[in-house]
Specification:
By secondary structure, the protein is an all-alpha fold. The chain is built from 15 helices and no strands. Helix 2 packs antiparallel against helix 3 (40-56) and helix 6 packs antiparallel against helix 7. The two termini are 21 Å apart.
């Protein structure tokens, strides 16, 4: 940020060779988003507002784009602060309004909506799971209406909703969160072009572990068994799935599900159980690169 201020001071003093632009401002916002500083999200949003003010004043070299807004949303998702979901929703509404008014560079995309879902998932807010699912439903409805792939929900979106369920903090919301988690899992499983991945199964086992009573061993085992068998069939068993499975069921139940393998790390399991793990990592790296370009 000091470098950005220095560049701005040079421009104001008449040096036109060095001046900040959208890229330099975005780099500053991104640095704040990654900083881990308690007030990083607030500062990132302040810089975004400053960009909007500069552009409105006639500085066309500094125009916030979808990357600017998405990065601020990411800062709020990481913040864990009270009110973070509401701040994210407000930023999303600004993007939507500007896009409707003709600014195509601020078109909300899949990353935008998924990050807002993630903000709800990482909050301690009441009805977080329900709010997260509402965003997913709205995305899917809009996709069905427009057939626009740019904001189509994907596996990461569904995972974020299920994650909001798994870590629901409010006791009175937990029954609703359990229902939502399995509803979203069933929706994801029914899709033609997207499907559950290893993270999906890890999250859903967390749902069983966190939301089903510890003493209700039969229900926990029944759900965990169905999930793990589907995970095996789809080739997404990894060490995270195994660790969460072990935490959800009894030791005897766990051993039966891994066919009584004493050393049941992923590398010692049948290849068919783990066949898609490396492929999924490659896809995630590819998605990350694509997102980073936006």
């Amino acid at each position: 940020e000091k470098i950005l201020t220095w560049m701005d001071d040079l421009r104001n003093s008449g040096n036109t060779d060095i001046k900040p632009d959208t890229i330099s401002f975005n780099a500053c916002i991104d640095a704040w988003a990654r900083s881990g500083y308690k007030k990083a999200a607030e500062r990132a949003e302040q810089i975004l507002r400053h960009m909007d003010q500069l552009y409105a004043a006639g500085n066309e070299a500094i125009k916030a784009d979808s990357y600017s807004y998405n990065t601020v949303l990411n800062a709020w998702a990481k913040s864990g602060l009270n009110g973070a979901p509401q701040r994210a929703e407000r930023i999303l509404s600004i993007m939507q309004a500007k896009y409707r008014n003709g600014d195509i560079s601020l078109k909300p995309n899949t990353r935008t909506y998924t990050t807002v879902v993630d903000t709800w998932a990482k909050s301690n807010e009441r009805n977080a799971a329900r709010k997260a699912e509402e965003i997913l439903v709205a995305m899917q409805s809009e996709y069905e209406r427009t057939n626009d792939d740019d904001a189509k929900p994907n596996t990461a979106t569904a995972n974020a909703v299920m994650n909001s369920c798994a870590f629901t903090k409010v006791d009175s919301d937990k029954h609703d969160a359990l229902t939502i988690a399995f509803r979203v899992f069933d929706w994801l499983s029914s899709q033609v072009d997207i499907a559950p991945d290893a993270y999906t199964y890890t999250i859903m086992l967390s749902v069983c572990s966190n939301l089903l009573p510890r003493q209700d061993t039969s229900t926990r085992y029944s759900h965990a068994r169905k999930l793990f068998l589907k995970c095996r069939e789809s080739g997404y068993v990894n060490d995270f799935v195994l660790r969460k499975l072990r935490h959800t069921v009894t030791e005897e139940e766990y051993m039966s599900l891994v066919d009584y393998r004493v050393n049941s790390s992923a590398r010692n399991l049948p290849a068919s159980w783990t066949r898609n793990i490396s492929k999924n990592k490659s896809r995630n790296r590819s998605k990350g690169s694509k997102w980073n370009r936006r």
